[in-house]
Design a protein that fits this description.
Layout: H1 18-53, H2 87-95, H3 99-104, H4 108-114, H5 127-137, H6 150-158, H7 161-186, H8 188-223, E1 226-231, E2 234-239, E3 248-251, E4 260-272, H9 274-277, E5 282-285, E6 292-293, E7 298-310, H10 316-321, H11 333-366, H12 381-390, H13 402-414, E8 420-423, H14 429-434, E9 437-441, H15 447-452, E10 455-457, H16 464-504, H17 511-530, H18 553-581, H19 585-608, H20 623-641, H21 644-647, H22 654-674
Parallel strand pairs: 8-9, 9-10
Antiparallel strand pairs: 1-2, 1-3, 3-7, 4-5, 4-6, 4-7
Helix pairs in contact: 6-8, 7-8, 8-17, 11-16, 16-17, 16-18, 16-19, 17-19, 17-20, 18-19, 18-22, 19-20, 19-22
């Protein structure tokens, strides 16, 4: 039911309509009786909540229950029943900016009276009243996409092309193995591959699931904005999730309007409605012509106060948000380069694998077998050339407009720089959004600035910027360490198997062994190298440009030296291992596999520090690294000594274990020697 107030020029009821008036009064009494019943029911619900929240019991006798509804709804607000309000009328009126509908309701002040809001004192601030408003008009929160379940991440991991290929190969291996060797012995290889794939999928899914949960938690925290509302005649901070219809809030430049509402008072208030209407012109808000304020818009000038008329999904912003979903797939420059490099490595690996397969098939059938474009265009070429020539020399740019800041960021990005921008005002928003990394202040920063930034410094301490920079450089350096380490593993494995397949038609490292190496090196190795803490030395290095190579000359020097040493040693074992150690073929292959794994374990220490010669510096501070290396050693012993059928290995004696460890330990000496070779750090 909705209430339409009489217009000032509307004639009163005539005397001859007394009978109709009496009937109307009778109907009104009936409606009042119905309202009392509804009000009592709501009061009972509110009182029960208060009792439950305070852990107090309601005293009762055997024959009746005594309830004091005055505690649930105070007498000073007993007349606010909200039965005369149609929420749809309020929502449509503000959304469509229907001034006629507002006039029919009696104007802004009359709407405030209907909502039980005092223009100066706001609404009553007791918990029961606020809960009553929430129950009637809803809560100020928006529907978010359902959180992805763990199984959805498992499914995404299974869709990976490499995983699908491995599963197909595992099924084929299982089928051919059972056909050739029978069920008792033939299931080992295929089942081992399936188990290894299962581990890879589970580890990947767990990691992505945890990251997603952390992101959701951070998103909820960053969305909990504090606003200044007036309740019981006092200004007080409240969470945006706790505001209710009828609240009044103070607005100033830079504030984001978070609900639909009406203008109460203020001076020269203007808002940017481009996020809702697409129009770039700022709209003036006043009580005479346009008192309507839409959620999702931003205050660009003036100040004022507004009355909340709709919250949550009933607002214009809520309706729009319900029809769209967030795009979280935007990638940073580093992610783009890593994805590109990973694609290249995958293509090279696939090519080598296909070549090995072809060689082995030939050997098998012939019987020869043994065991954005980012450039910006300006109107004036001359000014463009001068600007680009001077941009790197600018240290201070005073009294600059938002366009000047935006132009500077665009020019720096054109020249290949990775640009970071800090700001706290609304005029900083364009530059913050355009920059590769935007940083805003959490306390003094406006909502517009925070919305446009990538990182929010919660304590407003400028020294925290240094912390952000240290950790950013540390993450980049750790990624480089892992790339060097992982490329060494892949290069050695590909070269060894390719040369062995071409020369003898057989490969020393089986599919299960390679999967095992990739599992422990990709997962545990990445975790070990990614947990290195930032050092002061990182701050002495110049920043890395957008076009700078991800793999530096220093990394190539270290990588080539280690890969060359491992390939030479493993090829010697491949072609002369049986005669050197007087062992059979399976022991020889186990020696190759074990030496290969231990070479990676020792090389993990080399990868900790790319340039310095002391690879043990700060090792005692990284307990996780030590723990991961220890875990890897234990798992490798289990693979060689106890999981022979699974890993296609054979037990080694103490002397053979010593040989594997000694050969692998030489990588420390190789790493120390090559660091004496001077190369450019670029």
């Amino acid at each position: 039911m909705s209430l339409r107030f009489r217009k000032p020029n509307e004639p009163e009821i005539c005397d001859h309509e007394h009978s109709l008036l009496a009937l109307a009064k009778l109907q009104k009494r009936r409606w009042r009786l119905a309202f009392d019943v509804i009000r009592f029911t709501r009061a009972l619900a509110s009182l029960s909540k208060i009792a439950l929240d305070s852990n107090k019991q309601i005293l009762r006798s055997l024959s009746y229950v005594a309830i004091d509804i005055g505690r649930a709804l105070p007498h000073d607000d007993a007349g606010v029943n909200f039965l005369d309000i149609d929420q749809k009328i309020l929502t449509t009126m503000v959304k469509q900016k229907n001034f006629e509908s507002l006039s029919n309701l009696g104007g802004v002040k009359q709407v405030a009276a209907i909502l039980g809001t005092d223009e100066k004192n706001g609404v009553p601030g007791n918990e029961a009243q606020l809960l009553h408003r929430t129950n009637v008009f809803g809560k100020n929160c928006y529907k978010k996409p359902d959180a992805k379940s763990f199984l959805s991440f498992v499914y995404e991991a299974l869709k990976d092309t490499t995983i699908i290929i491995l599963l197909v190969c595992a099924i084929l291996s299982l089928a051919f193995g059972i056909k050739e060797d029978g069920l008792k012995e033939g299931w080992y290889d295929g089942s081992s591959i399936i188990f290894a794939v299962f581990l890879i999928v589970i580890v990947s899914a767990v990691s992505n699931f945890k990251q997603n949960r952390q992101f959701e938690k951070l998103s909820d925290e960053s969305g909990d904005i504090k606003v200044e509302v007036v309740r019981d005649g006092r200004r007080q901070a409240a969470s945006i999730f706790e505001v209710v219809v009828g609240d009044t809030v103070c607005l100033k430049i830079g504030d984001q309007i978070l609900t639909d509402g009406l203008f109460l008072n203020g001076y020269s208030l203007k808002v940017d409605e481009s996020s809702m209407t697409g129009e770039s012109d700022h709209v003036e808000i006043n009580g005479r012509e346009n008192p309507f304020l839409l959620s999702g818009t931003k205050v660009t000038d003036g100040y004022g106060s507004m009355l909340f008329t709709s919250v949550g999904m009933k607002t214009a912003w809520g309706e729009m948000m319900s029809s769209i979903s967030r795009d979280l797939d935007e990638q940073t420059p580093l992610q783009v380069r890593l994805k590109k490099m990973t694609s290249y490595i995958g293509k090279i690996g696939l090519t080598v694998a296909v070549m090995v397969l072809l060689v082995m098939l030939i050997c098998y059938f012939t019987g020869n077998t043994t065991d954005e474009r980012g450039d910006r265009e300006f109107n004036c070429d001359k000014s463009d050339e001068e600007r680009m020539a001077k941009i790197d020399k600018i240290s201070v740019m005073a009294r600059s407009s938002p366009f000047d800041k935006l132009l500077m960021v665009q020019c720096l990005k054109q020249k290949g720089h990775v640009v970071a921008v800090t700001g706290d005002g609304t005029n900083d928003a364009p530059a913050l959004k355009e920059a590769d990394i935007g940083l805003s202040m959490g306390i003094q920063g406006t909502e517009v600035a925070k919305e446009s930034s990538d990182i929010i410094i919660l304590d407003d301490n400028f020294s925290s910027m240094v912390t952000v920079l240290r950790w950013g450089r540390c993450d980049y350096n750790n990624i480089q360490k892992f790339i060097q380490f992982q490329l060494t593993v892949n290069v050695v494995a590909l070269v060894i198997n390719f040369i062995a397949a071409v020369s003898s038609g057989d490969v020393p490292l089986t599919a299960v062994q390679l999967l095992w190496v990739n599992l422990i090196m990709d997962t545990l190795g990445a975790l070990a190298l990614a947990t290195e803490q930032p050092t002061n030395q990182l701050m002495t290095k110049p920043p890395v440009g957008r076009s700078a190579p991800l793999i530096t000359k220093v990394m190539w020097r270290n990588l080539v030296a280690q890969a060359l040493y491992q390939v030479i040693v493993l090829l010697i074992l491949q072609f002369n291992g049986r005669s050197i150690f007087s062992v059979d073929e399976k022991i020889k292959n186990t020696l190759i596999f074990n030496t290969f794994v231990f070479c990676q374990i020792f090389n993990e220490f080399n990868a900790r520090i790319l340039e310095e010669k002391n690879i043990f510096k700060g090792l005692h501070k990284n307990k996780l690294f030590i723990g991961i290396v220890g875990t890897t050693l234990i798992l490798q012993v289990l693979m060689v000594e106890f999981l022979n059928n699974f890993a296609n290995t054979k037990r080694l004696n103490l002397e053979q274990w010593g040989v594997c460890v000694c050969i692998a330990a030489m990588s420390w000496l190789i790493g120390w020697l090559v660091k004496w070779i001077p190369v450019s750090a670029k």
